[in-house]
Design goal:
Blueprint (H helix, E strand, L loop, with lengths): L28 H17 L6 H10 L9 H12 L2 E5 L5 H9 L2 E5 L16 H8 L6 H20 L2 H13 L2 E4 L2 E4 L2 H4 L2 H9 L4 E4 L2 H5 L11 E5 L2 H9 L3 H9 L14 E3 L8 E3 L5
Parallel strand pairs: 1-2, 3-6, 5-6
Antiparallel strand pairs: 3-4, 7-8
Helix pairs in contact: 4-6, 6-7, 6-11
The structure holds fe (ii) ion.
The site of fe (ii) ion has 8 residues, from helix 5 and helix 8.
Length: 291
């Protein structure tokens, strides 16, 4: 999640909604080379790992080019497909600002890129994570609607005081989600597809749990930001994710959550439907309920 500055004031030079000019001409040759290096690394490993909607979006937006995309032509393509557009921000933005952008089909993307010695390290999301990781799926009409609905729902959640639960939903879907497909598990989360090491780890390591998506389970599961995930949640499809969230009345769910303990991050819970690792074949099982 594009977490979360703790001040409501935009920095000098930013608009009240925290947007700034991208200043595409200001990127150096070294900046563009970082983009191309990261892009090429991911392009090599994402076929048969990323979901089809992401790969189609990558093609549709032609994000390779000569380096960091210029948001103006990018927005012409994206807007024509789903009505979304990318807006530049200087970095982290406050919750309410972020959700307001999403609710209006605007994705805030950092306008800076990591240094050449930080290819596998990010202190906070940069333009590669935000654009390469997030924007291709915004070409998919179903996911585009999910992201808008998430923004709208989160604005309402501010009033319920349940934002930490909504942040977990974002984390385990938009950032670190996996999807079940007939060909095997596939990645759709931006935090995975923009990371070479986690793209491999998420699908192929024997270490993390992979559990079928369940809204309440996800919202009761904390996450860590300083290491690979210890649990990934698997959706049946983007349509299934949209239905699982749009068809829920969140007010009673929030009431239920307020009295429910969190799950251990690394532990399976009764009723979890689990998936084995692998990009081709997979097996499923279920964690037995305690008697
Ligand atoms: Fe992100």
């Amino acid at each position: 999640m594009e977490l979360l500055a703790d001040t409501d004031r935009p920095p000098p030079g930013a608009e009240p909604d925290w947007t700034v000019p991208q200043r595409h001409n200001a990127y150096s040759d070294a900046d563009h080379r970082v983009w191309v290096t990261l892009y090429d690394r991911q392009a090599e490993i994402l076929p048969r790992r990323a979901c089809d909607a992401f790969l189609h979006g990558l093609d549709a937006l032609d994000l390779h080019g000569a380096g960091i995309p210029d948001f103006r032509p990018l927005n012409e393509k994206l807007g024509a497909l789903t009505g979304w557009r990318v807006v530049a921000v200087p970095g982290l933005v406050p919750d309410a600002v972020f959700f307001h952008h999403l609710a209006n089909r605007r994705f805030p993307a950092a306008n800076f890129i990591r240094r050449p010695d930080q290819l596998d390290y990010l202190e906070e999301p940069d333009v590669f994570h935000d654009v390469f990781g997030h924007v291709p799926l915004l070409t998919d009409p179903v996911f585009a609607d999910y992201m808008q609905a998430y923004g709208e729902g989160s604005l309402r959640a501010l009033g319920f005081g349940r934002l930490p639960n909504l942040a977990r939903l974002y984390w385990y879907t938009v950032e670190f989600g996996l999807m079940e497909t007939p060909a095997g598990l596939r990645i759709y989360g931006a935090g995975i597809v923009s990371s070479r090491t986690e793209s491999i780890f998420a699908l192929e390591s024997g270490s993390p749990h992979r559990v079928a998506f369940d809204l309440e389970r996800v919202m009761r599961t904390p996450y860590r930001i300083d290491d690979f995930q210890q649990i990934y949640f698997v959706i049946p499809s983007l349509q299934g994710l949209l239905h699982a969230t749009l068809e829920v009345d969140f007010a009673p769910l929030y009431a239920k959550l307020s009295g429910a303990p969190d799950f251990e991050i690394a532990a399976l819970a009764p009723g979890d439907k689990i998936f084995s690792r692998g990009t081709q074949a997979y097996a499923r099982g279920r964690v037995r309920q305690h008697a």
